[in-house]
Amino acid sequence: MSLSDPRAPVWKKLSLHRDPPLLELFADDPQRVEKLSTRVELDEGGILFDWSKTHLTDLYLDEFEELAEASQFDEMRRKLFAGEVVNPTEGRAAEHSALRGVGKDSSVEEAEALRARMQLLVEAIHEGALGEVKHLIHIGIGGSALGPALAVDALSRDLSLVDVHVVSNIDGVALEAAFAACDPATTMIAVASKTFTTIETMTNAQSALKWLAQNGVSDPSGRVVALTAAPEKAVEWGVDETRILPFSESVGGRYSLWSSIGFPIAVAIGWEDFELMLQGAATMDAHFRDTEGRDNVCLRAAFADQLYTRLRGCETRAVFCYDERLGLLPDYLQQLEMESNGKRVTAEGEPVDFPTAPITWGGVGTDAQHAVFQLLHQGTHLVPVDFIASIAPGDELDPAHHQILLTNCFAQGAALMAGGNMSADGKDPARAFPGDRPSATILCDDLDSETLGALIAFHEHRTFANAVLMGINAFDQFGVELGKKMAKDIEGGEASFDASTEALLKAAGLSE
Ligand code: F6P
What we know:
Elements: H1 7-15, H2 22-28, H3 32-36, E1 37-41, E2 46-50, H4 58-70, H5 73-82, H6 105-127, E3 135-139, H7 146-155, E4 163-167, H8 172-181, E5 187-192, H9 199-214, E6 224-228, H10 231-237, E7 244-246, H11 263-269, H12 271-290, H13 297-311, E8 316-322, H14 329-341, E9 359-364, H15 373-378, E10 385-390, H16 400-418, E11 420-421, E12 432-433, E13 439-444, H17 449-470, H18 481-492, H19 499-507
Helix pairs in contact: 1-4, 7-11, 11-12, 12-17, 13-17, 14-17
The chain binds 6-O-phosphono-beta-D-fructofuranose.
């Protein structure tokens, strides 16, 4: 970071702190939980964001607020919601919040019109106006799949109006699994691609059409719905205009589940619940837009992220959902956070000399406790952890299930912080727990559509806030391009590669 960067002196100050142990922070400040826990109220219920088991202190918060000021956080946030350019390398705005009704008026209006069109189609399917639809195979990849897969899995377990399968991988095994679970006579295909050119998606879509045709469907393309920001490409590909659901170019792929990319979610859970999901996200938008400094839960989370990644050198951050329905959240967050902030130059193109996005990973509790938590408690890596749980159970079995689930969630956070020694004499180093390991807890009243929307929007804004504090562009993703180009070159058969790659191609029979 150049010395002329207004952030430099603040980082210098921040780096001089020596963190007291977490337990000491609690002992020294009886208001700690109150200061670092904030409840965001939703229309029904709410979410508690408890960052008290992190090393954030009043002093840190003061200085991180200074850092936000030096990073022109307020101005960047204003630009985000005003629909101004926040993605300078591509000259684009990032208008996912407009899809939830929070943003530039004209973008919100456009999004509403497009949503009304989507609603008609979703309701027509539910009313049977398009014939019997029992299954939907949603084909897309990256941002065109991860959000829909997460939301469908989280919200449609009890009552799925239509059986939805999300297929992303080009590996035909994935598509075959969906075929095996669907009756071609009652299956619709959604082709989801912002660009409508992604090779995996277009290849899978062709194979799905073939499958329908081979199984007696007379008009396979009549069963296709296209979800895209490139409607002209979908027309070219053969989709009827009435079944093309467009969305705006200014919505990034990994921020697109709120747009027509969310079609399978609405098909699975119903229109009302889809709108509730948007409403939950809009509540978080308003919180992020209108709340200053440390009281803003997204910004506060980003302060802690910066503390651990930049000041403590943590290379990863983990998310454990003590809720089976959120099993796909870590996958979703991996793209959101790593594709957004896994950068090595600033928004102005200067090389950065500090770590940017940590590696996001995670899983579900309590499963993960019996697999990877050993390293969290006793390994040599310091891993800041987020725990996510719901007070209301997602099951109707004996309440003991949910009680044990929640108890374990809270116990893990407490144990990571407290540490101790499990041996009889308290001296066995193999049984020693260093403790002072940080975690944050996100506790939802219930995991319904509105809450999921708010939870996802919280992570979107946290990611943006991190990018602003680091001075990087969260909205481009050129890092995915080189590998794609090389795959094309290999297919074209013209380019030559390194000796190892050439040998692999030969071994697999892909070259002579
Ligand atoms: O290759 C990465 C990426 O461009 C993601 O950013 C995007 O979500 C995904 O591919 C799919 O792109 P599309 O929606 O255009 O098919």
